[in-house]
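User: Last request for today: this protein with heme C, please.
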Amino acid sequence: MNKTLVAGLLGAGLIASSLSALASDPHTRVLASTCLSCHGPGGKSKSAMPSLAGMDKTYFVTQMKAFKTGQRPASVMHRHTPGYTDQEIEKMGEYFAALK
Ligand code: HEC
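Assistant: Here's the final one, the structure of the complex with heme C:
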């Protein structure tokens, strides 16, 4: 992905972020920013796509792991999730749960 796009997505995410989400580490923010093209700027979806902002962390982590193992059938998420470690999934869960 080119740097301008990453910076743009990151910027869109940061503007909509709450202070506690801003406190999360840059690595997590960059990972989370890659989700926003589908799940809406700031994690707030305006389409049929589920919003990630404010999602319960336990629910988020459970779904991400279920996509990763193929337990939960998906159109795209099973392609994304194998790229993330369990720790990264936990961190993203905290990040999105803190977004309002
Ligand atoms: C290409 C578009 C796309 C991208 C990028 C994307 N998602 Fe998704 N996401 C979807 C779709 C579509 C679904 C519905 C399940 C499916 O068909 O894959 C979904 C479902 C989910 C769900 C389940 C929501 C619920 O209500 O049960 C979570 C959690 C999720 N995505 C998190 C993420 C995270 C975190 C990222 C970034 C690492 C991400 N998604 C990136 C398209 C995307």
